[in-house]
């Protein structure tokens, strides 16, 4: 007698199976690039310590960087559709590498300001191209998992890059610029060698951003994304200020609590990405936003490191839920030949939020911690309600 057994798919296979090889080249390049992302988190420290600039001058320089970032996403969206996904991504990475080195060796204020503007312009050019590539390469049913895995790679790489970057900054800032530049070159080469060009034929790639702006559903979704970004980016703007200045935590205590965010993402994201991918995108996105809102509203009651960690755990759960669906929804709304532009408008919302988050959060925090965090939680809930309202139209699309 002979018996046959049916082998159940392993957990690892269930998480990585079914995705095409070019996607994994894109994923690997993203991971390497994020492992080498060391300059931007330490820019303020570099400019004050290594270049002897005042805090006011640093604020001006970062504002110039933000202006470049605003233009970046719209420009990248057009290039992705007109020139090609692979060319735009690889070219953007090579331009970022060159600009990193130029900034690292700049000593005068005009040179630093110019380098920072160009860096803001080129550093995220890869994002619309990357989002469009995933939409082109991966089937609709697998896109939430694919975008979730990219989110996981970004967070894993960033966590390691931050840790090693802090040590290298003590050795010499120039190392940060070289490692960041090399990681950009590796990303560019990986994509150029292993990822095919997926741009539709040139005759189909006409139309400017006016086409995107006339899509009322995409514009409405972009407003939801703007709300999501305004909420999340408080983690990098007002949350450190509130915890150290109001709650009186030390930087070490705040950093320890924030480490939980990265740990949870690295551990939990791969475990739930497949399950989340089978849920309805708009309802799940709204649920994630609501959980984020609850976590940030709870921050108003934080009095010590433990309770800060509790709130971080709550809004991180929301962040994990949301992660795989933004790109999925953009890909569903965008015509194939306009995926770059649609992704560019999505990225523009994040760039705009990066400028607005501190401008709005600062005055709110001055009125009181409860005012800030209840407002942030309210923005998340309004965005969640907006997402639910858009759900039927998104499902029809």
Automatic annotation (TrEMBL):
Matches recorded under Gene3D superfamilies: MFS general substrate transporter like domains
Ranges for domain Major facilitator superfamily (MFS) profile: 22-395
Subcellular location: Cell membrane
Keywords assigned by UniProt, alphabetized: Cell membrane, Membrane, Transmembrane, Transmembrane helix, Transport
Membrane disposition: Multi-pass membrane protein
Residues spanning the membrane: 23-47, 53-75, 111-129, 149-169, 175-195, 216-234, 254-272, 284-302, 308-333, 345-365, 371-394
Keyword Cytoplasm: no
Protein name as annotated: MDR family MFS transporter
Species of the source: Nonomuraea spiralis
């Amino acid at each position: 007698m002979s018996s046959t057994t049916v082998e159940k798919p392993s957990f690892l296979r269930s998480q990585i199976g079914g995705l095409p090889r070019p996607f994994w080249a894109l994923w690997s390049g993203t991971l390497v690039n994020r492992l080498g992302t060391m300059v931007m988190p330490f820019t303020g420290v570099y400019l004050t310590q290594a270049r002897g600039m005042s805090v006011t001058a640093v604020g001006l320089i970062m504002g110039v960087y933000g202006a470049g970032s605003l233009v970046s996403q719209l420009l990248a969206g057009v290039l992705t559709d007109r020139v090609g996904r692979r060319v735009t991504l690889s070219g953007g990475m090579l331009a970022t590498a060159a600009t990193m080195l130029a900034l690292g060796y700049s000593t005068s204020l005009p040179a630093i300001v110019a380098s920072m503007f160009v860096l803001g312009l080129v550093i995220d050019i890869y994002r619309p191209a990357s989002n469009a590539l995933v939409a082109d390469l991966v089937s609709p049913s697998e896109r939430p998992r694919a975008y979730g895995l990219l989110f996981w790679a970004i967070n894993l790489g960033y966590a390691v890059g931050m840790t090693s970057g802090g040590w290298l900054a003590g050795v010499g800032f120039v190392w940060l610029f070289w490692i960041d530049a090399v990681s950009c070159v590796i990303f560019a080469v990986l994509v150029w060698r292993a990822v095919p060009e997926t741009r539709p034929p040139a005759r189909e790639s006409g139309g400017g951003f006016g086409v995107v702006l006339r899509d009322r559903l995409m514009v409405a979704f972009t407003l939801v994304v703007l709300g999501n970004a305004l909420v999340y980016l408080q983690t990098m703007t007002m949350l450190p200020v509130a915890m150290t200045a109001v709650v009186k935590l030390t930087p070490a205590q705040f950093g320890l609590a924030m480490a939980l965010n990265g740990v949870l993402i690295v551990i939990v994201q791969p475990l739930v990405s497949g399950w989340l991918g089978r849920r309805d995108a708009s309802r799940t996105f709204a649920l994630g936003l609501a959980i984020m809102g609850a976590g940030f509203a709870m921050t108003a009651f934080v009095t010590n490191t433990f309770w800060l960690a509790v709130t971080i755990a709550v809004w991180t759960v929301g962040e994990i839920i949301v992660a795989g669906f933004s790109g999925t929804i953009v890909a569903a709304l965008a015509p194939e030949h306009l995926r770059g532009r649609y992704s560019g408008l999505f990225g523009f919302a994040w760039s705009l939020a990066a400028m607005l988050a501190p401008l709005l959060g600062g005055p709110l925090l001055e009125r009181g911690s409860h005012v800030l965090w209840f407002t942030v939680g309210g923005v998340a809930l309004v965005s969640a309600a907006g997402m639910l309202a858009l759900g039927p139209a998104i499902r029809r699309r």
